[in-house]
Amino acid sequence: MDLANKLAILADAAKYDASCASSGANKRDSRDGKGVGSAGGSGICHSYTPDGRCISLLKILLTNRCIYDCHYCINRRSSNVRRTAFTAEEAVTLTLDFYKRNYIEGLFLSSGIVRSADHTMEQVVQIARTLREQHDFRGYIHLKTIPEASPELIEQAARYADRISINLELPTQTSLDRLAPEKNLARTQQAMGRIKLKLDEAHDRRKNGDRKLRHATGQSTQVIVGADDSTDADFLARSDVLYGTYRMRRVYYSAFSPIPEPSVVLPVKAAPLVREHRLYQADWLMRNYGFRTSEILPPETPNLDLRIDPKLAWALRNRQDFPLDVQTATREQLVRVPGLGLRNVDRLITIRRHTRVRLEDLARLRVSLPKVRPFLITADHHPARYLLDSDRLIDRFLPKPVQLDLFDDADR
Ligand code: SF4
Question: How many Å lie between the centroid of ligand 1 and the Cα of residue 51?
Answer without folding.
Answer: 30
